[in-house]
Amino acid sequence: MPDPVHHARFVEIVxxxxxxxxxxxxxxxxxxxxxxYQGETPMVLRPGTREEVSAILAHADSNGLxxxxxxxxxxxVGGQIPCDPEREVVLSLGRLNRIREVDAEGFAMTVEAGxxxxxxxxxxxxxxxxxxxxxxxxxxxxxGGNISTNAGGTAVLAYGNTRDLVxxxxxxxxxxxxxxxxxxxxxxxxxxxxxxxxxxxxxxLGVVTAAVLKLFPRPRAQDVAxxxxxxxxxxxxxxxxxxxxxxxxxxxxxxxxxxxIEFTLRHLAGARDPLAEAxxxxxxxxxxxxxxxxxGENPTRxxxxxxxxxxxxxxxxxxxALAESQAQAASFWHxxxxxxxxxxxxxxxxxxxxxxxxxSVPDFLDEAIAAxxxxxxxxxxxxxxxxxxxxxxxxxxxxxxxxxAGFIARWDEMNELxxxxxxxxxxxxxxxxxxxxxxxxxxxxxxxPLELExxxxxxxxxxxxxxxxxxxxL
Length: 474
Fold this sequence. Notes:
By secondary structure, this protein is of the alpha+beta class. The chain has helices spanning 4-14, 23-26, 50-63, 117-126, 143-149, 156-159, 195-198, 232-246, 258-267, 299-313, 326-337, 339-342, 361-375, 404-408, 411-424, 443-446, 449-462; strands at residues 19-20, 44-45, 66-70, 88-92, 99-103, 108-112, 129-130, 166-172, 178-181, 207-214, 216-217, 221-229, 250-257, 281-289, 319-322, 349-350, 353-355, 380-386, 391-397.
């Protein structure tokens, strides 16, 4: 049961209906979709304004309570799930969901933290603009969480991570003070860029309540190809050729194995194989152009045909399908975006979100696949992801018919194996999902002592009472 004094104060701030204490009301906030973490909390708070967030944090900071910020609850490392039934209070930002301003001429948009990524896409499109952050969970993830985790997605190749897409932030500090930073300036060289400390900090330094986002011209022409290839080495050669030909027009380049396609075909509603025959690996490639085209001309189609034609001649591509409509392009992307979700239907899956230098991706995959297959004979590696920026989701599904619990029990052992290979390739153990609780204890193994010391100093300076997300990241 929540402390009556704290409960009364929070009711005073947000109203009775926005202080959740019944188990059935809190349940959706206490479980993440992979079922790795089941949370406990005395209450869930649902503020509707930044002033309410400020009052909640001021009370918590003064009374020894801990606040766990939560957006759409789509995080994959457990950072948004509370674990202390007495002191860790969930702060759900879902009611802060207004789009405050769309500045089409300035190519900027001001939104509140609880706005879903899909709503942002829709608002940008209505203004004939585009916000490029694209994730499989965009219908439910919220921009505050995207910012707090520095989300990546499938458009990083052309537009960068979330930190490259944010112009300004409004942040409530742990003691309740509000950092006013909603500026849309493209250039501001007045000292430290404080907003960058909050982007990717996973809610440990402050609570983002609003942001100014960069918008881009809406593509006037776009083409998507789904190509069958023999190996990641051929994928790298295709990427180098496409990048040299298309430059910034290459806006997507995703790598997928056949086993992942088979999973999606079995379990993903509406999934269809784009090619007549099976291939060991596949590349999903997207070209986009903001240039208006003359009637009957399509610069991205001609360029895509040139790239694929050269790839066929070089023996890099075995077969390919070009999307003939937006619906068909969406169906190609549907296969890619559903690949992580469908793995649960195949039993236990041990997941890794890693990155290595782009040129090292094929060699990393050769070594890592062989290593996990030797460790767990019959396991099914499903490495897929953002070949163009070196980020691979190196997931491993259990052997067919194996005991799920027994396989998952080897999570740490397999992590150590895969992360050791990542380290040898000078890579990262967390490319876009963050650290949270899942990878917190691994930081000491991959960060040098000075890096860790400086991170701890920043945390102590911003949050001396460890009010926000304790035990996450550090």
